[in-house]
Amino acid sequence: MTKRVFRSIFLTSLAALILASAFIVITLYRIYETDAVNELKREAAHISEAIRQKQSESEYLKQIYSSDRITLIAENGAVIYDNMTDASTMGNHADRPEITEALMTGTGESRRYSDTLSQMTIYYALKTYEGNVLRVSKTQSSVLGLLWDVLPILLIILISTTLLSYLTARYMAKQIVSPINALNLDSPFESDIYDELSPLLTRINQQNTYIKKQMLEITKKQREFNTVTQNMREGLVLISAKGNILSINESAVEIFQTDIEKSIGSHLLSVNRSLTMQRVFEGALNGINTEALLTINGRHYQLLGSPVVSKTSVLGAVILLLDITDKHIAERSRREFTANVSHELKTPLTSILGFAEIMKDGLTRPEDMQDFAGRIYYEASGLLTLIEDILELSQLDEKTELPDKEHVDLYSLAENVLSRLKPIADKKGVNLSLQGEKIVVTGYRKTLDGMLYNLCDNAIKYNISGGSATVRIAYKNNKPVVTVSDTGIGIPPEHQPHVFERFYRVDKSRSKEIGGTGLGLSIVKHGAILHGISVDMRSGENAGTTFTLTFPVTEKPLNINHKQ
Fold first, then answer.
1. Helices then strands, each counted (H, E), the chain
2. 179 falls in which pLDDT band (50, 70, 90)?
3. Fold (CATH) for 2-148
C-alpha cells in the first residue's frame, strides 16, 4: 500500500509540475508576442504620421534607424523601399496576406515561421495617406524556440522539483500508511485515526465478531471430532482429492506404524503402498463405496473407503480400518473345528459301523462276540465323551445354560477329582498327591471341576510309570493359586504355543493309544476366561509339565486353616 500511495502522490506532483511549466512557457510566449505586435503597431503609426508631414516617404525612411525591418510597398505590390534589402531585388508583394489585408481594410497582420519552426516573423502592415503600404516586421523565437532557449534552466528546475516531489511523496506515503499498518485488527476501534476509515473499521469489527463465533463453533466441533476419532479402536483417515492425508487418528497411526506429524500432509501411499489401499482410495475418489481386506504385520483389517461428496464433485475420501483379526481367526478356528469334529466323530462311528456290520452279517465267531461288543462299547464311550466335551466348550463359548455362581472349596474339589482319577493313576503307576490349604472361591463348580479334572487327567496320561502328579492349593500375593505338576514326558517348545487349540495333539499316535479328545486344555482355557483366571504353563521335553491357575484377588480370603 505504501508504494501505491507514494506512486500516486509522486506522479500527481510530477504531472502538475510539467503542466504548470508548460502553462507558464506558453503564457510568457503569448505575453511576449502581444507586446511585440503592440510595439510594431506603435512604430508603424509613428512612422506613418511622420511620413504624412514630410514630402517624400522614401527619403524620410532612409533617414530613420530601426532594429525592425521596414518596407514600403506600392499599391501594385512593387517594393519601393526596404531598410535591410535592396528593394530592386525584391519581388512583388501583392500576394502577401498582410499587404492584401492592409489594402482592403487599412491594416494587416500575419505571422510566418522559419523552416526549422524555431523562429517566427510578425508582420504588421498600415496603408499610408499616399495609398502605399508601410510594413513593419519583427523576428522572434517561436514557442519551440523559446522552449529550446530555456530548456537548460527548465531541466534544472524539473530535476530539482522532481527530487523534491520524490522525497515529499515518500515521506507523505509513510506518514499516511504508518497509522493504517499499526491498526489493531482485533480491536479496530482502539485505532480510529481517520474518519474516512470508520466504515471499514466497523465492518472489520463485525467480521471479527462473526469469525470469533465461527471459530468457537469450529473449535467445539473439532474437539468433539478429535474426542470421537482419537478414542476409536478403528483406524480413520481423511484424504483430500489429491491423496494427501488431512487427518489420521491414533489407531490408524498405530496400524500403519507411522507418526501423526509426518503423516499429515503427506500422500496416503507414503504410509501404505499396497495395491489394496490404492484400489480402495481410487474407488472412493471415483464416488464408489469400496471394501477390501488388508493384512498388515500379521493382523487383518477390513478397509472401507467412502467418497466425500459436495453437490456433484468429490472433495476427498474417508478410509476406515476395522480390525477383524479375531473374527478372521474365529472363522478359521470354526472351520478347523468343524473339520476336526467331523473327523473325530467319523473315526469312532466308522469303527462302530464296521464292527456292527460284521456282527449283523454273522461273520463273527461266538467267542469273538464279547471282544467286538467291547470295542463297540469303547468307541461309543469315546464318542460320548467327545460329544460331552464339545457341548461343554460350546457352553463356555456362548456362556449359555450356566448355573448360578457358588462358593467352591478348591481343596475339596481337588480331593474329589483325584479320588475319581486314582484307579487310572494306579493302573498307570503314577503317584497322586494333594498339598496346600482349603481356599474358597466364587465360581461355577462344574466348570472348575472340569478344568481341574482335565489338568490332572493329562498329568496322569502323559506321565511315566513310577512318576508323580501333584496338586498344590495356596495363596500367592493375596490370590488363590492352583498348581498341577507332573514328572511326565513334557511338551516340546515348538508345540507349547498350540496346546490350548482345539483337537491339537503333540503326538497324535501316542494320544490315540492313551485316549483323549484333544479338547481338554481348550476347556481349561475357556473356563479360565469365564472366571478371569490366568493360566501359566512351564514344560520341558522329558522334564515334566506344570500348569498354574491364578484366580483374581478375593475381597476377603476364605480358608479353613487346614493344611496337608
1. 14, 17
2. low
3. Beta-Lactamase (3.30.450)
